[in-house]
Amino acid sequence: QEVLGEDKLMAILKERELKIYWGTATTGKPHVAYFVPMSKIADFLKAGCEVTILFADLHAYLDNMKAPWELLELRTRYYETVIKAMLESIGVPLEKLTFVRGTDYQLSKEYTLDMYRLSSVVTQHDAKKAGAEVVKQVEHTLLSGLLSLGLQALDEEYLKVDAQFGGVDQRKIFTFAEKYLPSLGYAKRVHLMNPMVPGLTGSKMSSSEEDSKIDLLDCKEDVKKKLRKAFCEPGNVENNGILSFIKHVLFPLKSEFVILREEKWGGNKTYTEYEALEKDFAEQVVHPGDLKNSVEVALNKLLDPIREKFNSPELKKLTQAAYPKAKPAEKPTKNSEPENMVVPSQLDMRVGKVISVEKVQDSLVVLLCNMKPKAMRGVESQGMVLCAS
Description:
Elements: E1 2-4, H1 6-13, E2 19-25, H2 35-46, E3 50-56, H3 57-62, H4 72-89, E4 97-101, H5 109-119, H6 124-130, H7 143-158, E5 163-167, H8 171-180, E6 190-194, H9 220-229, H10 241-254, E7 257-259, E8 269-271, H11 274-282, H12 288-309, H13 313-322, E9 353-360, E10 363-369, E11 384-388
Parallel strand pairs: 2-3, 2-5, 3-4, 5-6
Antiparallel strand pairs: 1-6, 7-8, 9-10, 10-11
């Protein structure tokens, strides 16, 4: 979608092939939008580039502890396995790629000293600005999240690349690196950005928003269910995650897309240009139902090899260990009170007046008046009778 440093890029290509890296923080499970950078990595390899894939495990921990320390190694193994499976599913030769983990070199003395040097020149304002779209935003930002931006800048030097590739949502991080790397005596790198695929709900597809994404290991039934619920208004091509996936993944991989439909609706139609498909959808020649069904078939072809690989007992165990399911809330015991139950100690007695207190058949009856509806959770605010055994 965008290139920063195109003149430098062209100058390098006059002398040799480009050295480039793409990094991913090992946090939530990768989803189908990861096929966008994967298909572009395939393009880089076809163009003769030397490509390094970085599994940024330390980044994942520093960015608001999105990956707990005790799960870091497991999640990094999961990412490495699933991304290699993705690349294999679209026919990318793994032997042409270099795979690196951040902790393989980011804990070295030289790298650590450079982090201190960088922190001595970076302002808090610039760090917060750089991470505005990527670092998890909370009311009280942790220092660790801002440190991860410095790591991403230094990675360009320590991986000895000419360029970094990432989503357009990382633009501010890239300009941060361009500004501060020269202050350490390091060269400014080229930055290449792919567009962000809208999620199924219309916003950015995100690992943390379950309804917006299709997981790489989702079964066919789940894929069908999520696609059926996806935002795909007839004729609307804006924020349409279905169309965007076709444009940025399926077309680049296959150079065509087939709309599957019954003969009574015109039969199957093959599109060799995305613009023609978008035009037909905008003019409602292509129905959203047919579009979703066609994407479902094409997507399952990409996911089948990944599902098959992760069907082994070893990888099932790894997945469960790296992403343990949250424990269900404990059921209240016979003598315990439900969490949302109103008890006398929770009531603000200042907003009402106790009219009378008397004992009736081993129960305490308190008659209250003029209580706030909020405190009484929907009970009538006049003349409430509160019984406590």
